[in-house]
């Protein structure tokens, strides 16, 4: 069965391609390589023994998207990762984000609407909850006004899919709301490859550990949490990748209750920034150079998932601990800097 993975050379995309191929799916990747590299194909091949079909294509080029679906009329499911994801950049360049993340989603849904039957998995984010009033966060927590154009594209993306599913009986979709993805494949053949200075915590920690950055700035220790630093739900990328395959199978097998569903994907456990640093120090045996600085504008205090819905309905559960995920991130960092 042929599955299209957009953004399949990216961090979460590449790990999902591996899990799909391990389950016997035939994978076609579309990626414009704006934030990824064709070398990732080698890593996927090394792990799975199979090279996915790859087309370098920019989803903003509508005619090329139409042409792609003509040539690959047998695509039965799409996992849509391709999107821009830097919060700060989205504030500077909102139209780039709306065009990249919304325009391309519309083109894909148009093509899928032409089919009698199609399954669609969307990369959403816990960012849609903003600072939720209650922890852990359930899927029915209110969606808060977005703090950035990036966050807005995830909220609007969900609405666009829900509206389209309402009037397109053959289209079935699931939005997965990721918490904080981290780590690398245990083989160290694929992992996270941030371009330039990492904005996210874990790659900044491992790059500091390996000596590429002098020190980590911890953004604020005066939050109303036990140690004063922000709390997040760090989910191992391989666990997250598996959630996509399970969600896709649910749609392909017609097991979904509604034609648009939403699931949180997290561990259910919150960890503070200092706890993440301690985890790094445990698994690496190294002291991390860090200092406490002021808060980062736009950061929320606490976010961790209630995963009951994914556990019970999808039958999916995160299996790896923070230390295991951190160890994989550290192994990967050391490998790519050798
Ligand atoms: C960020 C985005 C979120 C996006 C997610 C995935 C914001 C406000 N949110 O989430 O929309 O979906 O990335 O890419 O940008 N930290 C430090 N020092 C650092 C980096 C981070 O102390 O150098 C802290 C942050 O303050 C935060 C935690 O580490 O408390 C995690 O930060 P990060 O990895 O950027 O993820 P989020 O902010 O949760």
Task: Offer a concise description of the structure.
40% of the residues lie in helices and 18% in strands. It has helices at 11-22, 40-48, 62-71, 87-92, 94-113, 149-167, 201-209, 237-252, 273-284, 308-314, 322-337; strands at 2-6, 26-31, 53-56, 75-80, 118-125, 171-178, 180-182, 216-219, 231-232, 234-236, 260-265, 271-272, 290-293.
The proportion of strand residues reads: 15-25%
What are the secondary-structure elements, in order, as H or E?
EHEHEHEHHEHEEHEEEHEEHEHH
Number of helices: 11
In the predicted model, the low-confidence regions spanning at least 5 consecutive residues are none
Strand order of the largest sheet: 3-2-1-4-5-6-11
CATH superfamily of the largest domain: NAD(P)-binding Rossmann-like Domain
Helix content: 40-55%
Radius of gyration: 19 Å
Secondary structure category: alpha/beta
Distance, first to last CA: 38 Å
What integer is the average pLDDT? 97
Main sheet, how many strands, which sense, barrel? 7 strands, parallel
| Ligand names | uridine-diphosphate-N-acetylglucosamine
CATH top level of the largest domain is: Alpha Beta
Classify the fold: give the CATH topology of the largest domain: Rossmann fold
CATH architecture label name of the largest domain: 3-Layer(aba) Sandwich
The figure for the number of domains is 2
Q: What's the shape?
A: globular
Number of strands: 13
């Amino acid at each position: 069965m042929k599955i299209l993975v957009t953004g399949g050379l990216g961090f979460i995309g590449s790990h999902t391609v591996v899990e799909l191929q391990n389950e016997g799916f035939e994978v076609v990747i579309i990626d414009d390589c704006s934030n990824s590299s064709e070398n990732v194909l080698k890593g996927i091949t090394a792990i799975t023994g199979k090279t996915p079909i790859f087309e370098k294509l920019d989803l903003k080029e509508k005619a090329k998207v139409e042409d792609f679906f003509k040539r690959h009329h047998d695509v039965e499911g799409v996992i849509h990762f391709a999107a821009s994801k830097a919060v700060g950049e989205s504030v500077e360049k909102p139209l780039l984000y709306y065009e990249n993340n919304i325009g391309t989603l519309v083109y894909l849904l148009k093509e899928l609407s032409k089919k009698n039957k199609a399954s669609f998995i969307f990369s959403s984010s816990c960012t849609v909850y903003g600072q939720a009033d209650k922890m852990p966060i359930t899927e029915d927590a209110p969606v808060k006004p977005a703090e950035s154009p990036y966050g807005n594209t995830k909220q609007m993306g969900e609405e666009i899919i829900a509206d389209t599913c309402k009037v397109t009986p053959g289209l079935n979709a699931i939005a997965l709301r990721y918490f904080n993805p981290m780590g690398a494949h245990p083989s160290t053949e694929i992992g996270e490859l941030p371009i330039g200075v990492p904005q996210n915590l874990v790659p900044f920690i491992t790059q500091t550990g390996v000596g590429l950055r002098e020190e980590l700035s911890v953004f604020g220790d005066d939050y109303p949490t036990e140690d004063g630093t922000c709390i997040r739900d760090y989910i191992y990328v391989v666990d997250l990748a598996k959630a996509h395959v399970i969600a896709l199978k649910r749609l392909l097998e017609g097991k979904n209750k509604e034609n648009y569903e939403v699931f949180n994907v997290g561990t259910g456990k919150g960890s503070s920034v200092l706890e993440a640093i301690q985890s790094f120090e445990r698994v690496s045996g190294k002291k991390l150079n860090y200092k406490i600085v002021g808060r980062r504008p736009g950061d929320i205090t606490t976010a961790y998932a209630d995963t009951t819905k994914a556990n019970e309905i999808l039958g999916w559960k995160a299996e790896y601990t923070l230390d295991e995920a951190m160890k994989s991130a550290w192994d990967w960092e050391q490998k790519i800097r050798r």
